[in-house]
UniProtKB/TrEMBL annotation:
It comes from the Bacteria. This is Carbon starvation protein A. It is found in: Cell membrane. It comes from Aerophototrophica crusticola. Its main location: membrane. It is a multi-pass membrane protein. The lineage of its organism: Bacteria, Pseudomonadati, Pseudomonadota, Alphaproteobacteria, Rhodospirillales.
Amino acid sequence: MQTLMKNLVWVVVGIFGAACLGGIALNRGETINAFWFIAAAAGIYAVAYRLYAGWIVATVLSADPTRATPALRLNDGRDYVPTHRWITFGHHFAAIAGAGPLVGPVLAAQFGYLPGTLWLLVGSVLGGCVQDMVILWGSTRRDGRTLGQMARDELGPVAGAAALVGTLLIMVLIVAVLGLVVVNAMKHSPWGTFTVAMTIPIAILVGIYMRVLRPGRVLEGSLIGLVLLLAATVGGGWVAESPTLAPLFDYDGPALALAVIGYGFVAAILPVWLLLAPRDYISTFIKLGAILLLAFAVIILRPDMHMPAVTRFVDGTGPVVAGHIYPFLFITIACGAVSGFHALISSGTTPKLIASEADLRLVGYGSMVMESFVGIMALIAACVLDPGVYFAINSAPGVVGATPEQAVATISSWGFPVTVETMTALAKEMGETTLMHRTGGAPSLAVGMAHIFAGAFGQGLIALWYHFAIMFEALFILTAVDAGTRVGRFMLQDLLGNIYRPLGNTGSYVSTVICSALFVGAWGYFLYVGVIDPNGGINILWPLFGISNQMLAAIALAIATTILVKQGKLRFAWVTGLPMAFLAVTTTVAAWQKLFSADPRVGFIAGADTMAAKLEAGTLSAAQAAAAPQLIFNQRLDAGLTVFFILVLWVTIIEMVRISLRHTQGKSVPPLSEAPYVAMDQLTPRMAGED
């Protein structure tokens, strides 16, 4: 009877979530309340976590709580540390939650609210959450090995080498895009720049406090950090109004890009406890707190979604992200639905912390569910804005016109009326000088969040809410910039260590400085070129980021599929094989279009050739002509990287198919690299985080 009642409850929850989603999908001709998006997401996530993820853990993965994890068997108090499940959950979420779930859904809002909502929900529960959990399981069963090492062990040296080099280049693009989002959020914003800049000394102070001044006083350090962050947000308003201080924090894009590049280098070589760890720890509170507060405000306010369900820009003429809704919706919304970057975390630090295989569902599947919810909230914040305002903020001057008058005329001609007076008043309301052409997604997201917060908690503080949202976004992103730079440095040291052994010594300060400088220089190049791009940079870099990130996810799912087949679970290979196939086809189509489309806003080669022709004809302005050679080279470089990523993806998939067929035919294949079984009851050390 009790089992029947439990099943009945889950049936009711599933019906509720499906009904809410159906209402969103079928609604036409009138506005729809944002509350239904939260209700639909909650219902779908709950059923997927309880039933689908539970079935995968129990049946497909055969997770065994009696099996000792590498954190228990290899406990060294430094890298391998058995940690309480909720602390591990917090670490994993902080590591995977970067700019992607915030920016991707905002950029994809140009297609309307419906396509993004469907992909965020369906893509996450069937693809992204599955990838994160299965890779975490695979790495935990293999002593916490990295994705590249797992590829080498399970697929052989060819696929392993391709995955290692491909992953390193993908990390370069990921960090460059994250940096571009930060730069566009702070450009000519003294308030935002001051607040973000203050997060660095605050994190260092908290790190020193918890390690040197008051060791072990985590709660005290956390409270100090939170109070100082809020004070920096308020203080930014005073700085912005000061004729003396405001110019000290008012910078253009190139200057901010150099500052972010310098920060990335310093963060990569500082001790992890001094900046990276305290920033991640504090940001977890801000991330979860702000998203839950935003959801609470939506439930109270119940704002209408002003963006149409589907816009005219599904045809590929969008001003924010160029390209048709298929395949570009699926690479624009990357991290909120499926993210290959997560596979690096699931095979990086997290498997070295898992204390029991019973925690795999919470940490792997649950963290990705939370990130998908962040994406839903970001989509809501973008779509409650008036569409004309949304496009005025997110459209680059090279697309809609350089002057405010040209921009609003172009946007109004699309059927989304907006005026210069509206944008001027909005900027003043937010404490900014202008919000026109603030590409990258972060500024429009902050405006949407500020309107929701102000509507629920008080209009008088709307400028403060806006800059709180900017600080919240910057914390999301900078944690990924410094963590990504550090991980990229480790990967580069591994690679260069095969050529010259001393460079592979992660304990060497000389090696650390050299490899940090090389890696920062690589992503710094793409960041700087994106900043000087007259089309906003994000139009070029984000699709390439999405393509490479989704290709990495397909590679990770191919490795997971190989492991399942070699374990004799061919009948369950569809669990990872189907999302792998969808991502492989979709990203290949996207890559093909980015290479060979005749539209210069879509195709890398067409864009380079068009700009080269304008440069030769002398039709560019002096500033555009100065930047043109670098932009032309960068577009052609992007084309070369795209070809390389396609080759890495299909080499991995072909090797997966070949090895799977050989295994089913009883022929020799690389053996499973799974560590031998050791009973949990033989190892019972105290877990980190327990009293």
